[in-house]
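anyone seen this seq b4? input:
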Amino acid sequence: MGAPSSTYRVQFTPSFTFADATAVADYLARLGVGALYASPMLDAREGSTHGYDVVDPTRARPELGGDEGREELQKRLRELDLGLVVDIVPNHMVVPNPWWEDVLEHGQASKYARYFDIDWSSGKVLLPVLAEDAEDEVHEHYVKANWRRGNTELNYRRFFDITELAAIRVEDPEVFEATHRAVLSWGVTGLRIDHPDGLADPGGYFRRLREHFDGWLVVEKILGPDEELPQSWPVDGTTGYDALREVCGVFLPLTDAFAGNFHEVEHSSRQQVADSILVAEVRRIARLVQGVEFEDACKAVAEVMVNFPVYRSYLPEGLRYWETAVRLSKSPAVRALDEQVRADPHGELATRIQQTSGMVVAKGTEDTAFYRYTNFVALNEVGGSPDRFGLSVDEFHQRAARREAAEPLAMTALSTHDTKRAEDVRARLAVLAEIPDEYLAFEAAMTGKYGISEPTLNRLAWQSVVGAWPLTEERLGAYLEKASREAKIKTSWVDRNEDFDAEVAAWPAKALNEPEVASFAERIKAPGWVNSLGQKLVQLTAPGVPDVYQGTELWDFSLVDPDNRRPVDYEVRRDLLERLESGWLPEVDDSGAAKLLVVHKALQVRKRGLHGYRPLRAEGPAAEHVLAFQRSGVITVATRLPVGLEQKGWQDTVLPLPGAKWTDVITGRPATEDLASLLDTYPVALLVQGDQ
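predicted toks r here
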């Protein structure tokens, strides 16, 4: 089975089931996508809105329609010539579940004791589930304890700091077979593998998976700006956060107006995570270090993980990343740790420190530093680099050409269920980088009226308001509650500050009713639309397999989950698509119909197949405002830096077109090299050779 031409991600919830997806499949086919890309479909905890808390991997989730509903969905997709790509999570399961209950009943004698990554040295499983004032309940094979003991004494591996998600030992062939048998029997087009960094041996896992699955295979691997997937992994590429960083980056001007010391904030955030919520994991690793005092080993283990330049190394591959972390670490026991890891790169010490480094980096960077370092939050994205502001056109072309040559079937994305803010929020925030003085003056004036007492949250709040405008007090309040607690500065999920929480909760009503806020949001709206259309067309036509996250074929101004899992109104989208199919050319306005037009036309072109990559250069005074490239017989043209363009216009700027006659499939008009004419209706164009 080959890769789909494109995908459309849907989030299954109790209110959006397999039957609901079956009902919208015809819309997706008309839109032009190649495959439905599903959030986890295996049986999960009742009421789950994401599905990563799998409770039974042997069947499709009954709450969504079960195996019967799943089969009906696949039947309908086949009728429409659509593929099915399924998200699976091999790292963990939610507890309790039937296997886990058997372990608690029978202890190490349980058939499933080896399924979970449990440290049995104490003889019992620690369950930190009781209130702080409750007595400890000691049972034959487990102990129920104060919930706060989990972060320091937990003796089973988990997903990050979520005690209810217990890690499974998928490296064991029996566990692999038990957890993959069902999904591998479904005959799907592709698989998306969640959180490979948590696995003991990701490369070994992918090689075993390839023995059973020959379809499209992408992995949720967060790469640094200069990092590549390990060459030994038999996969088609990542799920696209690297492409997201590049596509969004090229629509930013190169500026130092929002500069700061991100790495200082990042380092302190990671250190706090290692010293608090992940202490149990650090201590378990430290017990494996020989020849040094235990507390010294703890310090060395934590320091090395804090200093990782990427999420994890895959020893012996990626040795340079391990060496960098060791070089930056000063603890006396680091030398012993380094020697023992190098001596046995596949041993338990090396394996556990690699599994855990990704937890420290993710929780420290994505879930802490990104909420503390808020100078310019459009850069604070999964896989993003807030210290790297923007991407030149030349660098974008270089990276796109490399993707076409090395990983042409990698997924690309602009919005996902994990992004901190939706693509159109980032596109609007990119406008601020063109008018930094104007924005900072606005922020200062508004802070004088309604400032939040914690400065970093204050900056995040004002950018969020203008970036996601218009939004309700309820949505903004829920977002700021999460942001303030993730930042862990004046409040947190574990230790609440009631006075500060009340201040944050009262803020949306003030900010959202200020006329100057509405006025500034209106100021950046139109150029934000230009960026939105440009980055979407580029993502859909550049190298890779593009994904459209549910609902983002219209404007989407969602913030972090669960805001981005709100229900999608497919009836509105159906009606608009019918009008577009009849030849309607909508205005670029609040309806978002212009974005739907661009998505529809690009996906239709994409189905023909695009190959190769050739940068095209505009000529003239406004040449810097164009990003253009050719693939097969198709040319993509996008406007960038729209505020600067407003001030000077196209001024005889042209885009020389190779070959004979071209037609813009978005407008249906013959193409011209004169950009003022080519882009007079929309700020983007998609050209194909000949008449259409």
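The longest strand covers residues 54-60. The CA atoms of residues 301 and 641 lie 45 Å apart. kinda curious what u guys think
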